Amino acid sequence: MSPTSAGRGRSAQGGSSASSGFTCTECGQQTLKWHGRCPECQAWGTLAEAARPRSPLRRVGAVSGPPAVAARPIAEIDATSARPRATGVPELDRVLGGGLVPGAVVLLAGEPGVGKSTLLLSAAQAWAAAGGGRVLVVTGEESTSQVRLRAGRMGTLHPDLFLAAESELGAVLGHLDQVQPRLLIVDSVQTIAAGDVDGTAGGVTQVRAVAAELTAVAKERDIACVLVGHVTKDGAIAGPRVLEHLVDVVLHFEGDRHSSLRVVRGVKNRFGPSDEVGCFEMVTDGIVGLADPSGLFLTGRSVPIPGTATTVALHGRRPLPVEVQALLTPSSGEAGRRTVSGLDNARTAMTLAVVQRWGGVRLAQQDVLTATVGGARVTEPGADLAVALAVWSSARDIPLPAGLVVLGELGLSGDVRPVAGVERRLAEMRRLGFDRAIVPVSTGGSRATGRSSARLRVEGMRIQEVADLGEALQSFGDGTIDWRSRRGS
């Protein structure tokens, strides 16, 4: 075969690859070449061959005639219809930013069996009972009789609550025309399929098409829509990443199977704060909100023990106290293990390095275990000082004083940096009976003296402001390190 004909053969074979590509079944990323690992989501073996129709580049001109809705000055637009309407579940309304906005689409994701359907069934009944209008619940995973039994057990029956078991998008739209609801709940979006779209239900193409259609219908008819989403084994929302961009609000429903505590955490919210949390408790006949969950994350022991420290995390506008525990044991090998539960792994590793370097605690041949109480998850930097003092307390076998709360972010040089909302956090801890606090030096204070020009004041609480880890340890009588001489101050 001549080089020319061989080139034509390769061109003919390459023509099919030019008109086809590969799509990741996890995140929807499209590539021209096959990879064993998706370049976007790093998942293995998820690239499948898919047709890539050619679309020639062309100029897009304006449509004939004026637009259907003319552009207006922003101040003349009425925003009354976009105000949130309470669902009747206060903890859920807190995370949503006041309630559900007509025309908005909410994605609620969580692990199987965590209680997503139970929460939304309770919210649907509360919405109908408060006069919010008809509610249509579309279930694609259970039969109507199964949902009816759960609703009867929960006491969530209402004349304005309608139920349908469908897995086809056209049928769902037909129920919308018939019922005319003000709230639509789809459980779940991965079980609904569009007949005119290739692929099976739950696939990237189907999920994208179904979500886009339901979003368009919700905004066209001013219907509040809640979509239930599945999560992968890594905790990420299953389906294409574009799903999170299509919706207005993304909520994560979290909880441990061995605990009755459930937490709704905001991840994205176009109508309110995106870092709020709502606390719930699973009970025999359903789920109830916890307006004051402070006691769930504290052990409540009367006598302090070594290796524990109490801090308070700020979730949105809600301060939640958290007890941090640490345990040091001799390692069986040369390198000690590091086990973390409820805390950020990277920040905990950094804190342990700071404690070893600037706190005089030897961790080389020690197994270090750190955890939070009650299944709380704390990732903010304000818990660094509490983790450091819990590790120091366990290493020295010295309990921290009762009624003490600790706040502060640790820098790699051992300095304690300020955190947001200190006064609000301390006021909550004083309400719970804490009478002493160790906090960072206030803004504008003197790092040389460790005191600020405008001291924090919380009635009934003794507040100690520290500039670095050494000052915090010296307040407990640890004189093993001359911190100021090491700093040259």
TL;DR?
Helix content is 27%, strand content 24%. With 489 residues, it is an alpha/beta fold.
Plain-language structure description:
The chain has 12 helices and 21 strands. With about 500 residues, the protein is α/β, with parallel strands linked by helices. Strand 11 and strand 12 (about 285-290) form a beta hairpin. Residues about 1-20, about 445-455 and about 485-489 have low confidence and may be disordered. It folds into 3 domains: about 20-50; about 85-290, Rossmann fold, CATH 3.40.50; about 295-485, Ribosomal Protein S5, domain 2, CATH 3.30.230.10. The protein has a 9-stranded mixed β-sheet with strand order 6-5-7-8-4-9-10-11-12, with helices on both faces. The protein has helices at about 5-20, 90-95, 115-130, 145-155, 170-180, 205-220, 240-245, 345-360, 385-395, 420-430, 470-475, 485, and strands at about 20-25, 30, 45-50, 105-110, 135-140, 160-165, 185, 225-230, 250-255, 260-270, 275-285, 285-290, 310-315, 320-330, 340, 365-370, 405, 410, 415, 435-440, 460-465. The longest helix is centred in the middle third of the chain and has 18 residues, at about 205-220.
